[in-house]
Structure formats: structure tokens, C-alpha cells
Amino acid sequence: MNETQNETQAPDDRTGLVDADDRALQVRAQYEQVEQHVLGRTWTLPELAIGFTNDAAYVGRLVLAAERTWGIDGDVDAELRHKLAECLWWVFVLADRLDVDMPEAYAATMDRIGDGLERTLRGMGA
């Protein structure tokens, strides 16, 4: 284990997202129990996607509120923390339903973007 790796982190988890992914799916399982009881079924993939986009759009309004160009009641910082965390939760839930290994996808995407930016910066002489 290297010095920066968390002791509870899986050895192949370069992102630190595996535990967050697991926790998100545990919470989703609890939601599914409630949905089954209330609706007689669990939410469909399109319903989950709409839930995500609704929360993501609200983040936009909260950013406006943080910049004082949109008024909201309550604590803007607390709401931002909550909605950003909820959006991350939705990403894990949607990835699971779509069979996307989110920790792996994130690591690969950041590597690809980082490599591209390094090439760009070298080309700029930075």
C-alpha cells in the first residue's frame, strides 16, 4: 500500500470512490424498499434519470443563489452541499443501473483528460 492510499481503500481503487459507490447503492436499496411499499414497484431507469436531472438543475439555481443573483430561502451553502452530494449519489445509482463501473470509468476518464491537457500544455510551452 502506498503512503497516500487510505488503509480502508481497496488496493485497486485509485479514485477512492469504491466505498462511496457501495454506500450509494445501500441507500438506493433502502429507497427501493420504500418505493415497493408505496408504489408497488421500484423506479424505472427513466424515472431515476429525471430525478438526477431535476437535482442537477437545482444545483444551477443554488449556484445563482450563492452568487446572489437568485433568491432562495434557507442556507445556500448547506443546500449546495446537500444537492451536490445527492447528484453524486444519482451518478452512482445510474451507473449501476447502466452497468458502468463508475470508479473505473472515472479513473480512465481523468487519465485521458489529464494526458490530453499535459500534451496541450507542453505544446503551449507551459
From TrEMBL:
Name of the protein: MazG-like protein
